[in-house]
Amino acid sequence: MAPDYLSSVRKQFEYYKLLGDKTFAQLPDDALFWRYNAESNSIAVIVQHLWGNMLSRWTDFLTSDGEKEWRNRDAEFEPKIQTRPELLAKWEAGWSCLFTALDSITEANWDTTVYIRNQGHTVTEALNRQLAHYPYHVGQIVFIGKMIKDGQWNSLSIPRGNSQGYNAEKFAQPKRKVHFTQEYLPGHSAAPGTTESAGSQQKKAGQATARQQQPTAQQVHILPYEPRYAPDFKRLNVAWIEKDFVLEEADLKMLDHPEEYVLQPGGHILFAEYQGQIVGTCALVRMGEGTLELAKMAVAPAAQGLGIGRQLAQAALDKARQLGARRVYLESNTKLESALQLYHKLGFQTIEPDRPSPYARVNIQMELLFADAPAEAPKF
């Protein structure tokens, strides 16, 4: 068994899934069902086919034929998916089945023969077969998205005209062993045993020192919204969203018009000031029926690891209590592990989705119920 190979395969699958995620995020709902002509497939149909293939290939990957008796491949090309949530659910289910199967591969079963339609494959051959198949269809999804968006498309690779600058940036770095997906996928670091650059080592050392010198509550000032902070509200949120996802229409509405979409309906926006700089922000968005949504929470990269996010979140919860809220709701993504750990520490619990999200990146919803909420109507 070659651990480096299996790790590389996983990263490549994650990368191609990310391309699909970022395409869906750029498209309105109706675009997911658009077809160029009667002989073409929509994005929804392509996702349906990928879902069917993935469930068939990766269920009992090592112990049963990859073409399951219960699979109906022809039906995968019929337009059955009707909504974005249904499309995303099948997309996630297929990839989840794949990654679970990858986790089952060990040194002990590496020599297993994997059958697909009674044709025997080594594990390597079976992985390579799907690693060639799925990017083919993801490429179709991206191409359709690019056709639909035309000049409004946000490039998922090197933007046109930027090749020279991109190459200059890469060649300015020392030679090293690194997986090509590292700059795209969250949570992946340099390969084990590789040498980090001096700049990277200095950055990590600085972060470690910063964690040892966490600011006290007196050093971090939690401030209410003022118009002069509006650019900070957008700047901080754009940074974290674009790092792992893509900006969506719903993001821009709130970030460009915070007073209209947050404050005027009865919500609040808070900011964290540290050493004279605005380094964090979050919003409480009114949802009605005693519920506020904790949204648009962001901390500048240079200030992360200092406990500022926790202070901001706690201040927001205190504000929600003052307003008489009975429930605080939030939406997130399971990639954001540090954020989810914080929410759990604050008492949030994962819930079954109870409302459609305006954001394609959302795959987890949470809530915090105030047991001591007043019986009278909330003040919002």
UniProtKB/TrEMBL annotation:
What Gene3D superfamilies does its record include?
3.40.630.30, dinb family like domain
Q: Which part of the chain is the N-acetyltransferase domain?
A: 220-371
Q: Where is the composition biased (Low complexity)?
A: 205-217
A Pfam family of this chain:
Acetyltransf_1
GO molecular function terms noted in the UniProt entry? acyltransferase activity, transferring groups other than amino-acyl groups
Disordered: annotated span: 186-217
Which SUPFAM superfamilies does the UniProt record give? Acyl-CoA N-acyltransferases (Nat) (SSF55729), DinB/YfiT-like putative metalloenzymes (SSF109854)
| Protein keywords | Acyltransferase, Transferase
The annotated regions of Polar residues compositional bias extend over 192-204
Q: Does the keyword Transferase apply?
A: yes
Q: Which PANTHER family match?
A: AMINOALKYLPHOSPHONATE N-ACETYLTRANSFERASE-RELATED, AMINOALKYLPHOSPHONATE N-ACETYLTRANSFERASE-RELATED-RELATED
Question: Under which name does UniProt file this protein?
Answer: Acetyltransferase (GNAT) family protein
Species assigned in the record: Hymenobacter chitinivorans DSM 11115
